[in-house]
TrEMBL record:
Belongs to the NAD(P)-dependent epimerase/dehydratase family. Pfam families: Epimerase. This is NAD-dependent epimerase/dehydratase domain-containing protein. PANTHER family: DTDP-D-GLUCOSE 4,6-DEHYDRATASE-RELATED. Residues 4-227 form the NAD-dependent epimerase/dehydratase domain. The lineage of its organism: Bacteria, Candidatus Walliibacteriota. It comes from Candidatus Wallbacteria bacterium GWC2_49_35.
Length: 308
């Protein structure tokens, strides 16, 4: 059985990736600081590792000696991570993680990047034709990590892929984010305001993103790949689709927020390279993905007593 270390296993994306890898026959070592929130997954072992404790990280890799590393862990505190100085700590810790992996026999590394690495003056972003011009500490540090890991992997002979994520949604997403906010508000029969409904974003169901990570890990594909749907959807259309399933269209207010002036109207990602080199496909239609997300939140709200 192939051994893979998964960092960020208790996060929104990580828990779905853990299930995907386990289902594909990997022996998964799930890293998380504190075991709260780590999913119970077959063929998986959880390890309480502080990734800023470099000695503990090196000791762990020395004992496990995995062939694969899938690195997702990062600070994603909602409303703060774009400009947080924690990005610089995670940049350093991520380089140390990769070095420990290589020194202990690691062969293939896949790590998570972001569409925020790109120049957002371009509406449709491709890996080798769209310039990278990040404007925030988050995007700058992710872009720097890509360059460092790419260079390190070439120097050390590591197989390396970099996954640039666009706008994911699904179970376990933070409630304050766009799609969970509208789902929860409408399920609770509360008014919700949709600012800038004409903005276009590239949304992808998190379970499809997890499948993309598994496809990259399975392959020998090298370099950067967009994990995206390649379909631009207006925010207003997403909100209306949620309202069609939950009911409550009359509860939505549409406005143009002050932040619209410094936000790009359209952000979408070209996923053709990922499809061509790994065989991955989007497997969940938008309405089905929203329905699954809504059902998950309905169960969560009912369990917490928030639904009357």
């Amino acid at each position: 059985m192939k051994k893979v270390v998964l960092s960020g296993a208790s996060g929104f994306i990580g828990r779905h990736v853990a299930e995907e890898l386990s289902g594909a026959g990997y022996e998964v070592y799930m890293l998380s600081k504190g075991e709260t929130g780590v999913p119970a997954v077959a063929n998986a072992v959880s390890a309480d590792i502080d990734l800023f404790d470099y000695a503990a990280v090196a000791k762990f890799f020395g004992s496990v000696r995995p062939e694969y590393l899938l690195h997702l862990a990062w600070d994603t505190t909602h409303g703060k991570y774009w400009t947080s100085d924690e990005n610089f700590r995670w940049l350093q810790a991520s380089v140390e993680l990769a070095a420990s992996f290589h020194k202990n026999g690691g062969r293939r590394l896949v790590a998570a990047g972001t569409c925020a690495e790109y120049d957002w003056n371009y509406n449709f972003m491709s890996e080798f034709t769209t310039p990278r011009n990040p404007k925030t500490p988050y995007g700058i540090c992710k872009n720097a990590l890509f360059q460092l890991l790419e260079s390190y992997s070439k120097l050390k002979g590591l197989s390396f892929s970099w996954a640039r994520l666009f706008f994911l949604f699904g179970p376990y997403e933070k409630r304050a984010r766009l799609i969970p906010h509208f789902i929860c508000s409408l399920l609770k029969k509360k008014r919700a305001r949709c600012e800038n409904p004409e903005m276009v974003r590239d949304f992808l169901y998190v379970k499809d993103a997890a499948a993309a990570f598994r496809a990259l890990l399975d392959s020998e594909a090298q370099g950067p790949f967009n994990i995206s749907s390649a379909v631009g959807l207006k925010l207003g259309d997403i909100v209306e689709a949620i309202a069609e399933i939950t009911g409550g269209k009359e509860l939505i207010d549409y406005t143009v927020g002050a932040e619209a002036s410094d936000q790009p109207l359209c952000l979408t990602g070209d996923n053709s390279r990922l499809i061509r080199e790994t065989g991955w496909r989007v497997r969940t239609e938008l309405k089905e993905a929203l329905a699954q997300s809504i059902q998950w939140w309905k169960d969560e709200l009912a369990g917490s007593g928030e639904l009357k």
